[in-house]
Amino acid sequence: MLAPKSWILEHVDVPEGTSTDELTARLTLTGLKLEAIESAGADISGPLVVGRVLTKEPEPQKNGKTINWCTVDVGDANGTGEPQGIVCGAHNFEPGDLVVVVLPGGVLPGGFEISARKTYGHVSAGMICSARELGLGEDHDGIIVLPADAGEPGQDVRGILGLDEEVIELEVNPDRAYALSIRGIAREVAVSVPGATGFRDPALRDTPPADDQGHPVRLEDTTGCPVFVARTVSGFDPTAPTPDFIAQRITAAGMRPISLAVDVTNYVMLETGRPIHGYDADKVQGAIVVRRASEGEQLTTLDGTRRTLTAEDLVVCDDSGPIGLGGVMGGESTEISATTTRVLVESAHWDAVSMFRTGRRHKITSEAGKRNERGVDPTICEAAADRVVELLTTYGGASAEPGVTVVGEAPAMPTVTMALDLPARVSGLPIEPATTVAYLEAVGCTVSVDGETLTATPPPWRPDVTDPYDLVEEVVRLVGYDTIPSVLPAAPGGRGLTRAQQLRRRIGRTLAGAGWVEVVDFPFVGEADLDALGLEADDPRRTVLRLSNPLSSEAPAMTTTLLPALLRTAGRNVGLGASSVAVFETATVTLPRSSEAAPILPVDRRPTDAELDALVKALPDQPLHLGLVAAGEADPAGWWGPGRPVEWSDAVDAVRAVADALGLELDVRPATLAPWHPGRCAELRLGDALVGHAGELHPRVCTTFGLPARSVAAEVDLDVLIQHAVHLRPAPTFSTFPAAKEDVALVVEESVEAAAVEAALREGAGELLESIRLFDVYRSEQLGEGRKSLAFALRFRAPDRTLTDEDTTAAREAAVALAAERTGAVQRA
Amino acid sequence: MSGPNSEYDPVEVTPLQAEHVAAARDEAIAAIAAAADLEALKQVRIAHTGDRSPLALANREIGALPPQARKEAGQRIGQARGAVNQALAARQEVLEAEHEERMLVEETVDVTLPTDRRRRGGRHPITLQSELIADIFVAMGWEIAEGPVVEAEWLNFDALNLGPDHPARTMQDTFWTEPAERHVVLRTQTSPVQARTMLTRTPPIYVACPGRVFRTDEYDATHSPMFHQVEGLVVDEGITMAHLKGSLDHLASQLFGAGIDTRFRPSYFPFTEPSAEVDVRCFVCRGVDADSCRTCRGEGWIEWGGCGVVNPRVLVACGVDPERYSGFAFGMGIDRSFMFRHNLEDLRPLFEGDVRFSAAFGTEI
């Protein structure tokens, strides 16, 4: 809310010398946060003065235009006291008029610097200003002609034009709708600024009594529209200009002056908080009826939009049908125009929820709607209408028609009961009962105390105050949030991070320690992303949870895999010139599993466990995944020698390192799955549980994402890993007897997996085997096409004795024998 | 058979003559002294103490002496050999020291050469910031609660007293999943974790929940459709706003430095009443000479988050007895905290995965 300071101070007195900073600091501390203090003339500098036009010589120009060569008395403002010669293109003034002159050296909005310059054969030493040039409005039809008594030539004109006005911008929370008005802000100043007195309520005025002579109004839905006040003025001059103070104030408040009739309704809305609608009374046919629209009913609103209404919308109708979307926007058919001479003023109270829904449904946001949907004081309809009538008669030459229609009545405010000591108990401050009562009364509540119980009736402008804790907030904010002491609560002994939380940290550290860089991506995905991975049509990762309102139509769903975003990220880094990229992300993915709805449960009690269960089951599965992508160099080249490019094993090993950090050893099997290279993809398991996949990317995927050939990736389910993580490990015991080492080289068919050979060796070697490690894979012509030699280093040790040559030979031979039997391995000579 | 040669005079055995022994000794010692390096010394050792060295050969002759002569000859040889071995050991020590010194000089490398043979990794600064915050709460005895990002509408809104007509529920703020009748949303706040915690645990409850949240904000320097919040919730007997202030002051001082505290301003949130905005004291200027401070832009305070006393309506919906228990809750932006803590003006680098950004933080922020 933008509030001109002078307007606020018209309705409340603050101690002499209270600065704007002090005033707004108090408002901020009690709940109206200062956003900014702006001054209307802040972007104008230099001499801007009153001038009296002495002479005006019209001079027709070759281009068909006529300019006026003027001399203007600017007093001593130009330093000489001599008349100032100025060329002016406008014609709406005469010698003797008082005008606004900016002298050389002045700067107008937009950084427009004024200097004496030669134009149309004269030296024009300054400029006579229009409202638009001063940033005061859109009016550029002519220059500003000041009232004859506005001031003396040479006098600074800022005060006269309201350019020295300070405008206070306050942030108003949705529960404090009353502060969307000068009335509310002035009341807040009176309550919260020390020493402020004399709040003068602009909505407190004597209004003529209701009678049955006014425009007939019938309310068919008194829930939606409990009160409707109608007043009519006639003899209105549609050409009458809006007085400067109104134009300046509504401009300062962020609204645009349009015409007197419209400006007056906006002015009163800003002043009282009560939105007003004006109709061209001559266009209203017959009695006004307020009702809910019938489904599909049509209305063209003021903005020219033809709208199809629903049975929830409130409409104002006349004999012709709907003429306005009640409380939200008027209709085109009865709009006030340049020929309107009779104005029907509507000041009605509308149901806030209905206003909110209609506004959203028809996507209408307006100053009126903003107030109506947050809640307006329902008791000031008559006063606000009367204020509009007063302004239209004063400035528009109109006269009030007899007859005052007041239909319905303001709903009564509910009473709220609370324990008298509740503010103290909630705040932790020693708030006395007398303080509680005083502050509640200060904000407008009617309060009574019975023993330990306080009963308050909130004022009609506070529909938000419904609960005991609402009363507490009113008291505590005025006592001052800044007085609340700082006391650290003593939590009972905590259990620290959960095991899963600790393990997730460990996983991140393990990867970072191994040279991987963590990134964070958005979890949105589109079909094109999944296509780019090369997923089969029936790949379960194509079953996505779609968003109704995605930000981008290219990524309209929640992702089932971290890879598309990671691949893009890796590609972007390569594009930026990185020679080595290794990125990882841990995040949940969304796997739809149910088509059941998540029920909307009651809020007046705890839902049953069965209800909660249904709620949770309706949600998609959201396992925590780890994704990683590497490209380029695994190890850089350097003075130590050549580097090593990334290869499939880097991806597998990264996942193995993670598993190792969790005390787990993964089973690795070959697999075929997009987006991996079909011959270079490992499936990683823990027994029956699938953990994920790792390996080299399919060459097409590398190309698609702008990655170098042989880039690698992995994606695994961390929940599975964490679930299986080893918790209590028994301490190992070691034999101190010497080890015996044996190397064996086995020739197998190319298709035989190293892991199978190793497993057979391990099993065949028996208990004496301490460790086994594959240290070479060798192929040669001598071995023959389609064969390879696998060289293993075996280490034997006994727990209780030094092994003999016979022991180790026997164990080695048993190992080789089992490998031969299982895998067809032949020991190399 | 002949008897012992009682006439044999040991002095007559030339190698054992004192002058010969002394000569052999002196020759050995001279050779030792002349050995220039360990290899030469090794040769000297063989020549002068080996089996075929003069002293060794002379030693063998002792056996041929009559018993009465053996002792003296043995002593003479023994002393000579002792002197030679001593000289050898001393020379060995000197030469080894020389050798080591020379070797160490020769092996000098340029230690300023680059050593980065392995890639350096790094964790995302928001992860690190989240962990740092979690640690602060854990140190207070709180626990870290979690919940899913795709969440039931009821838990994200209704249970938190965000009735069906609250502005935050409109299409402008919330990502809804299809079809809308299923009432599943992307959580707009970490607050549903509050509801989940109260629904599944009994007080006393002291939890913080960092996590990702979503709003339909267009992506720009200060807005992101996904960002991170940390939620705090305490439900216990006798909890007041003073405890809320104490907890946030503690968090502020741990995160931004000793003496950094918070300020409350009245505000409005459906799930808390009374509600407050939390400002944290600017940790750069501390409110002194704030006018020229770029971090707080002259305010002396930085907007940090929202908080308040848990609305009793929320307690009721979550099965907590509001007559017995009261609580407080708060929520702060983790990204936002990170941004002003680390002087980052544009949040987009957080989500664009340029490895230079995360790598710059390594594993510590």
Automatic annotation (TrEMBL), chain A:
- Protein localization: Cytoplasm
The GO annotation for biological process reads: phenylalanyl-tRNA aminoacylation
Q: Which SUPFAM superfamilies match?
A: Anticodon-binding domain of PheRS, Class II aaRS and biotin synthetases, Nucleic acid-binding proteins, PheT/TilS domain, Putative DNA-binding domain
**Classification via InterPro entries:** aa-tRNA-synth_II/BPL/LPL, B3/B4_tRNA-bd, DNA-bd_dom_put_sf, Fdx_antiC-bd, Fdx_antiC-bd_sf, NA-bd_OB-fold, Phe-tRNA-ligase_IIc_bsu, Phe-tRNA-ligase_IIc_bsu_bact
Task: Extract the Pfam families matched here.
Answer: B3_4, B5, FDX-ACB, tRNA_bind, tRNA_synthFbeta
Ordered alphabetically, the record's keywords are: Aminoacyl-tRNA synthetase, ATP-binding, Cytoplasm, Ligase, Magnesium, Metal-binding, Nucleotide-binding, Protein biosynthesis, RNA-binding, tRNA-binding
Give me the reactions it catalyses. tRNA(Phe) + L-phenylalanine + ATP = L-phenylalanyl-tRNA(Phe) + AMP + diphosphate + H(+)
The cellular component terms of Gene Ontology attached to this UniProt record, alphabetical and capped at eight, are: phenylalanine-tRNA ligase complex
- What family is this protein classified in? Belongs to the phenylalanyl-tRNA synthetase beta subunit family. Type 1 subfamily.
Which HAMAP family does the entry link to?
Answer: Phe_tRNA_synth_beta1
Q: How does it assemble?
A: Tetramer of two alpha and two beta subunits.
Q: By what name is this protein known?
A: Phenylalanine--tRNA ligase beta subunit
Automatic annotation (TrEMBL), chain B:
**EC class name:** ligase
Which subcellular locations apply to this protein?
Cytoplasm
Q: Which reaction does it catalyse?
A: tRNA(Phe) + L-phenylalanine + ATP = L-phenylalanyl-tRNA(Phe) + AMP + diphosphate + H(+)
Q: Which UniProt keywords apply?
A: Aminoacyl-tRNA synthetase, ATP-binding, Cytoplasm, Ligase, Magnesium, Metal-binding, Nucleotide-binding, Protein biosynthesis
Query: A Gene Ontology biological process annotation?
Result: phenylalanyl-tRNA aminoacylation
User: What do the Gene Ontology cellular component annotations say?
Assistant: cytoplasm
EC number(s) of the enzyme?
Answer: 6.1.1.20
The cofactors required by this protein are:
Mg(2+)
Any one Gene Ontology MF annotation carried by this entry is: phenylalanine-tRNA ligase activity
Pfam families in UniProt: Phe_tRNA-synt_N, tRNA-synt_2d
CDD domains assigned to the protein according to its UniProt record, in alphabetical order: PheRS_alpha_core (cd00496)
Cleaved signal peptide residues: none
Aminoacyl-transfer RNA synthetases class-II family profile domain ranges (all copies): 135-349
Its subunit composition reads:
Tetramer of two alpha and two beta subunits.
Q: Which family does it belong to?
A: Belongs to the class-II aminoacyl-tRNA synthetase family. Phe-tRNA synthetase alpha subunit type 1 subfamily.
Q: What is this protein called?
A: Phenylalanine--tRNA ligase alpha subunit
Q: Which organism is it from?
A: freshwater metagenome
